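Holo model, adenosine-5'-triphosphate. Inputs:
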Amino acid sequence: ARRWPVLTVENLSAGYGPVRALDSVSLSAAPGEITAVLGANGAGKTTLLRTISGLVRPSGGRISLAGRDLTGVSTEDLPALGLAHVPEGRGVLAELTVEENLRLGALGARGRATADGLRRIYDLFPVLADRRNGLAHVLSGGERQMLVIGRALLSRPKVLLLDEPSLGLAPRIVAQIFDLLRALVRDDGLAVVLVEQNARSALSIADHGVVLNLGEVVVRRDAATLVADDDLRHAYLGF
Ligand code: ATP
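Output:
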């Protein structure tokens, strides 16, 4: 049975000047579930996450988090409300240590980085524990991705928005990070919206799949059904 959603997006539209990037998009994310948002380059995936996070102003529609309308709530206030966004690009403060970077994740959220909170991240990503006192700039791409996810988790979110975590990483590393994500969602009841061009990997851990094309939702299925449907897969997902 589908769980009650913690994040609900209804008929969301947004654009950049005359460019309409999102056209009446609806989706929801429930605790303990991963919703994969798929689609080609330029389909509107990043814009969707940026609009949910208040970085792009919607021209229409509604976003609610745990029953609260997010209209007019500013981006800085979202961590305290339980929403964390990991953008594309794995931005870390290169001249700070791994642990200093992690601690930043708790700022502005629901409290400080507690020893417990840090331990939880180090249990999840042991490689970060090994490198906790090293500078972030020596990390590999996969380790950096773990660091930005760990940093987001330190705010103890209810909803995690993840933009293209697999980009540029070796398949083995992607599999490792996605396995960790799956376990985290199962154990902690986190709701994840996972934006990916790597549809095959994303659907291997997702509960639901939503395909965007030119800013519109063109397919919405549970992940297993989407993977099993050769026509849909070939038409929209390229595998
Ligand atoms: P990608 O995987 O390349 O990030 P995407 O599915 O995330 O693609 P978006 O980045 O959301 O797609 O882009 C949706 C549309 O909005 C595209 O037509 C894109 O060219 C346009 N767009 C995105 N960002 C801007 C911007 N800052 N200014 C103007 N147009 C933009």
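Strands lie at 7-16, 19-29, 34-38, 60-65, 68-69, 83-86, 159-163, 191-195, 208-213, 216-222. The longest strand covers residues 19-29.
Archived with the compound record.
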